[in-house]
């Protein structure tokens, strides 16, 4: 009786398997259809379903041809049922993911996120789309069950004319009747022909991209769970590709703090004579290469990690390094430094989640503004005027911080909740235009912003298991602390010059610190103390209250950190310390929710709110964070430290929506809207300066050190150390003229694309071109010219560099083609060089 009931589900199990795999493949083909020539798509179309055909045939055979042996039949049905159920879940997940992002799932990345307890909350945020896809697949499977079962049984019986001994299946099998032999022969003939032709096409088709497109669930899923081959190349296994630019004729001798430049020589660690004076004694974490240089090295010294020598970064041997520290600081800053003091006693470092430069501040006439207006195309002039007035209040604090005018005219005064900036005209700080993030994965970006290093081009945060190859800014401040002796007896911390005080480094955010090992990373980067959701929601926390509202799967809105911010500043002042406070905003992360009491605006027309719901939510979260930035600045005003505090505001990455590109989000999406970010160095006594530099956030640490030195905010010894360390970083200082090209060498820009190991953004400060470089055969090459196509609406795509270069030549000429070839080679070199510098095995 039990077996009989089990067998009654076989047609549905088979239909569920077929519908799930077919739907998955149909979506997969749809996503890649435009990337293939139509003729090849038609020619090789049958080969795309080879894996599915094998799976369906085996499943059908197991379900209907093993019924003579009850033991084998039960096992076969159970195994097939499990595979069908798994395939159904995977297909629903794939479709649901596409409904939200427009992208395709990579199962290796999905399993990595699923292994993280906090990551599972992120995955559950897509539950609605998953349930919708599941419902659709179940309905289609139920609808197709009778027809699919009949057709496949008919076909299978023709190929293997063995009658079933199970009476329950008699009607489903092809009857042995007059003419059956002839019908079977026809089916066998066409099946054999299809197999031969498809096999031939499979043998002659190119591997890329057809192998990727042909992958079928659940084979791709189990393949992602398998071991991954190592791609590390150790020193000496590869050379810098543009050898003609690093010849001996270009080498430069050391000069003062400049270490020299000779990339053609063999990398050697510094010897005792070249080691700076400050590198004496035991150095803080982050200064491994200086600590090691004090030891006499034997041939087998420091062999670790698979018996491979530990590699250390050396600017002398970096073929990409271009410095601008020999240039004078920009004139407005130089003039201001002559006229008055600009003390930087404290630093507040704000890394803003998903901060897009085009919305910091929001600009009238921008592409997004035009899309909002288009949704109201039938509105009258009065409604449009009211809408623009509402939009003028979207980012008022960002306007004040950047000194950029939004271009809107408001019909009234600012809300009382908006921070009022009291700086004099022409003052307020340095606003950077043209900056790109070095990674669209937040915590890789955090390493770049705090440590000035290139991130590791592998999926997710393997960096937490390695040594960061440059000292982070917090570790440099620890070095300053270490070099200071005790204060004179007649001085206290409160009465001493701020130059002689110690720094304390604190991290603060309102969301979890456990996702992707962020807490481990922050400790590794050198923070003395960190406060996360886990601390502030503890019932014994000093500012805990019962009505704390979680706004998303990561935690609370920024406002929950307000009393801790006040406490940190008050304690720093009372203890006579200097503060480095790093704060990460999070409300602008998916799902872009805001506190229930926060008023939500409808920026898009009501009839189109469904289409633009995500963007509308994002804009409301931007407005919330803008207000919060004003709250931070108000705290600095209220505590009396504004005029001695440098506030650094930088985006971790941008955020693409369907309004920008076919694929939304940052995951495996190289669109430019994910890379343009704001960067502001805010100080009431700094002149208002607008600087344009086609650079990445790798320049942030050297710029910060440069500002501390130029404003005389460090004592003489610390200043000397800072100048020396500025010459160790790969990035240039943004308060000096940016060197886009030097001796024929371009200042290359690299950007890791979330999750890290599959795609790389390659650009150059010298040209407007941009290349998305695939690091696996599953992705296309993408080229864009940001001068002619600033929003990347018509990028060129191809599955090979040769095919792409042909298209680039037709549209952009020979120089662009040569740049593409150089970018591809330099990009691949850079990937292996990062792994080498991180000693990643």
UniProtKB/TrEMBL annotation:
One Pfam family linked to the record: Sulfatase
InterPro entries linked to this entry: Alkaline_phosphatase_core_sf, GAG_Ulvan_Degrading_Sulfatases, Sulfatase_N
TM annotation in the entry: 42-66, 78-100, 130-156, 186-204
Keywords: Membrane, Transmembrane, Transmembrane helix
Sulfatase N-terminal domain boundaries: 511-708
Protein name (database record): Sulfatase N-terminal domain-containing protein
